[in-house]
Amino acid sequence: MKQLFLVFSVAALLAGCSSPQVIKMKDGSTINTPDEVYFNEDTGFWEYEDTTGRLRTVNKDEIVTIDDL
């Protein structure tokens, strides 16, 4: 019984960690991100990891909205 609870707990935790979002740009393009986008106050850029795991940045002035998928 404890093992079953542990399996479901881990599955729920992993499902909650992923927060795919879509960034809508001023030029009309969109960027789909597999995880949440974070704002870096030091640089003034939004940061996200792309689908290959690379860290990408987008200037805050180029973004219209950031929405959950």
UniProtKB/TrEMBL annotation:
SUPFAM superfamilies: Sm-like ribonucleoproteins (SSF50182). The keyword Cell membrane applies. InterPro entries: LSM_dom_sf, YgdI/YgdR-like, YgdI/YgdR-like_SH3-like. It comes from the Bacteria. Residues 22-67 form the Lipoprotein YgdI/YgdR-like SH3-like domain. Keywords: Cell membrane, Lipoprotein, Membrane, Palmitate, Signal. This is YgdI/YgdR family lipoprotein. It comes from Spartinivicinus marinus.
